[in-house]
């Protein structure tokens, strides 16, 4: 079956999003939600980036495999991504680990999550499958990667970041020849191989893979029968193709979507408190590294119906202001000062309070005379009057989770325990 001329390959592809991970390094932020469901950027969720990339690339068939504490993720999908229409040959399926294959088996690995849903992918009648992680922040046109995959005749095409060579020790690294054919896949090597002609940089895997479905289907079935396999793409499927087939690297820089303001390809794994805080705070820069205001490549999400943000009080020392900050709908900045911060939907900040480099998730209420600096505040937290965070490291660490970099995570449970101990 040949591709139809003048047809975007994305119309013959589906995106299979792996969104089952807990994201334990985000600590209490993932106590009640999976990492892909964590809020990001003022009004979106992390998973919205992978899904928006697929939609904007022309892909209209998607499946999302969920496992760990999936309720908030599934609810977000239903509310924000329910516009796919079967009569237009569009599909978005949510695939919780539901013991479809064996009553004792959940998803055993990333590859097994696809294996257990082979019949569903078959029903899509697609030629190509793009495997995506649901927990990274970036903008990418998958059509460009599909075009390379087909023109190169690859068995798998792997999306790769160009990173300084010695920073690649934390990634899966591709050793490639001058035609971008992968000759070796190395997991977290101590001495990463460089890119041909670029001795200072290496190619690190993004966890994005393009396969022809008929080939991947056969590989998955054989892998499921291998009792020694961990049923994982990075550990099992990819090394097998590198050894016995044709694996090709795709540079993220070739398909990264920019609006003209970004000065370098932007990709972030926001898997730690520090990285999550930094990526959000980056958005407050005068020229942010990631442009969310590019209407040609929108980040789709659940668009809540909310009133506009409101700023009130205008007396010295009690002025509602926000400088270099993102303030979402239904926020009220009342007689308080907000700087280099993000207020997600429905936040309230009250008189004589200051927020500096704060990421406040939805429905946070900051009461009067509060001073917050370098914080992440979980959804729905009520900050008590007079609380000071970000000035005394020992006091912060006594009540809250404080990282080595000095970022403080505040949850309601932490505040409740503090209130009980203080009487």
From TrEMBL:
Ranges of residues in domain Glucose-1-phosphate adenylyltransferase/Bifunctional protein GlmU-like C-terminal hexapeptide: 307-410
Keywords of the record: ATP-binding, Carbohydrate metabolism, Glycogen biosynthesis, Glycogen metabolism, Nucleotide-binding, Nucleotidyltransferase, Transferase
Pathway: Glycan biosynthesis; glycogen biosynthesis
Keyword Nucleotidyltransferase attributed: yes
Site (Could play a key role in the communication between the regulatory and the substrate sites): 67, 106
Protein's UniProt keywords contain Nucleotide-binding: yes
SUPFAM superfamilies tied to this protein: Nucleotide-diphospho-sugar transferases, Trimeric LpxA-like enzymes
GO molecular function: ATP binding; glucose-1-phosphate adenylyltransferase activity
PROSITE patterns (alphabetical): ADP_GLC_PYROPHOSPH_1, ADP_GLC_PYROPHOSPH_2, ADP_GLC_PYROPHOSPH_3
EC number(s) stated in the UniProt entry for this protein: 2.7.7.27
Annotated Nucleotidyl transferase domain residues: 15-284
One GO BP: glycogen biosynthetic process
Pfam families per UniProt: Hexapep_GlmU, NTP_transferase
Annotated residues for binding of alpha-D-glucose 1-phosphate: 107, 172, 187-188, 205
Record NCBIfam families: glgC, PRK00725.1, PRK00844.1
Entry's family note: Belongs to the bacterial/plant glucose-1-phosphate adenylyltransferase family.
Task of the protein: Involved in the biosynthesis of ADP-glucose, a building block required for the elongation reactions to produce glycogen. Catalyzes the reaction between ATP and alpha-D-glucose 1-phosphate (G1P) to produce pyrophosphate and ADP-Glc.
Complex formation: Homotetramer.
Protein name: Glucose-1-phosphate adenylyltransferase
Organism in which the protein naturally occurs: Pseudotabrizicola alkalilacus
Gene (name only): glgC
């Amino acid at each position: 079956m040949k591709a139809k001329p003048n047809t975007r390959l994305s119309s013959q592809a589906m995106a299979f999003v792996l969104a089952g991970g807990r994201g334990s390094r985000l600590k209490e932020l993932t106590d009640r939600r999976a990492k892909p469901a964590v809020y990001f950027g003022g009004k979106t969720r992390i998973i919205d980036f992978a899904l928006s990339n697929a939609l904007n690339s022309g892909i209209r068939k998607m499946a999302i495999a969920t496992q760990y504490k999936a309720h908030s993720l599934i609810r977000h999908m239903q509310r924000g991504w329910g516009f796919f229409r079967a009569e237009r040959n569009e599909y978005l399926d949510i695939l919780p680990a539901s013991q479809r294959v064996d009553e004792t088996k959940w998803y055993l690995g990333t590859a097994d999550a696809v294996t257990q849903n082979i019949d569903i992918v078959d029903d899509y009648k697609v030629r190509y499958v793009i495997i995506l992680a649901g927990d990274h922040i970036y903008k990418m046109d998958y059509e460009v990667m599909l075009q390379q995959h087909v023109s190169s005749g690859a068995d798998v095409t792997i999306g790769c970041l160009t990173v300084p060579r010695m920073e690649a020790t934390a990634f899966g690294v591709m050793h490639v020849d001058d035609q971008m054919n992968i000759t070796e896949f190395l997991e977290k090597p101590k001495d990463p191989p460089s890119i041909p002609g670029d001795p200072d940089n290496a190619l690190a895997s993004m966890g994005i893979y393009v396969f022809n479905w008929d080939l991947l289907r056969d590989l998955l079935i054989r892998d499921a029968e291998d009792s020694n396999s961990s049923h994982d793409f990075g550990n099992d499927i990819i090394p097998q193709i590198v050894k016995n087939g044709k694996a090709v690297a795709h540079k993220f820089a070739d398909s990264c979507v920019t609006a003209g303001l970004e000065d370098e390809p932007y990709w972030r794994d926001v898997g730690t408190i520090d990285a999550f805080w930094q990526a959000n705070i980056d958005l407050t820069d005068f020229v942010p590294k990631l442009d969310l205001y590019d209407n040609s490549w929108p980040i789709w999400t659940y668009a809540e119906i909310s009133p506009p943000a409101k700023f009130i009080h205008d007396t010295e020392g009690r002025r509602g202001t926000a400088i270099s900050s993102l303030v979402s709908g239904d926020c009220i900045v009342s007689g308080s000062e907000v700087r280099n911060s993000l207020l997600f939907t429905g936040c309230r900040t009250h008189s004589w309070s200051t927020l500096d480099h704060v990421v406040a998730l939805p429905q946070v209420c900051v009461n009067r005379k509060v001073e917050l600096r370098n914080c992440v505040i979980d959804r729905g937290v009520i900050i008590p009057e007079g609380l000071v965070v970000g000035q005394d490291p020992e006091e912060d660490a006594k009540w809250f989770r404080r990282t080595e970099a000095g970022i403080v995570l505040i949850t309601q449970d932490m505040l409740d325990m503090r209130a009980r101990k203080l009487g």
